Amino acid sequence: MNSAPAPDSPRASQSPVPSGIQGDLELELLGLANALYNLGTTVINDSTKERDKPGGGKQVGMRVNDVVGHLATIDDMSRHIQTMIPMQVLNDIDNARNPMQLTKDRLERAATENQFMNGKIAAIESYRHYLNEALCQSFPELREHLHVPIKEEQGSS
């Protein structure tokens, strides 16, 4: 019977693992996250009353070796991967900023800037339209060189 993982424990990805070296790396990173989680729980248990129980205590060294093993494997895998991660992303993670929230914020900012630029483009197109109309009225011989909408040309003939 499978039980749901604890909310604070590493859990399986909701999407399928990619194939190839990136999939292997993702699985290794998941293993590292799990090893770090296990190390944390072992340290907590070791520093509480459970360290006096038989079979308990001094498993921290084994957990640390597990973490180091995962890190060594990831370091070996990094030589075969060409993917570059922007330094800002790593700094944000180091500063405990949620990557999902940062992605959401950046997407919202990009959408806002996109709307702003679309407004500028619409304003320039409107200005161009009115300028072309005024030029065609003042200088009819320029009509063939200016872009004037078809309905404008039909209305003036």
Protein architecture, described:
With 157 residues, this protein is an all-alpha fold. It is 64% helix and 0% strand. The protein has helices at 21-46, 60-78, 87-94, 99-138, 150-156. Mean pLDDT is 80; it is low at 152-157.
Question: What are the salient characteristics of this protein?
Answer:
157 residues, mainly alpha, 5 helices, elongated, disordered C terminus
Mean pLDDT over the residues:
80
- Please compute the radius of gyration using only Cα atoms: 31 Å
Largest sheet: none
Number of strands: 0
- Give the assembly state of these chains: single chain
Q: How far is the first residue's CA from the last residue's CA?
A: 81 Å
- From the helix content, strand content and strand pairing, which structural class follows? mainly alpha
Form type: elongated
Q: How many DSSP H or I helices?
A: 5
* H-E order: HHHHH
**Proportion of residues in helical segments:** 55-70%
> Could you name the ranges where pLDDT drops below 50 across 5 or more consecutive residues?
152-157
Percentage of residues in DSSP E strands = under 5%
How is this fold's topology laid out?
Blueprint: H1 21-46, H2 60-78, H3 87-94, H4 99-138, H5 150-156
Helix pairs in contact: 1-2
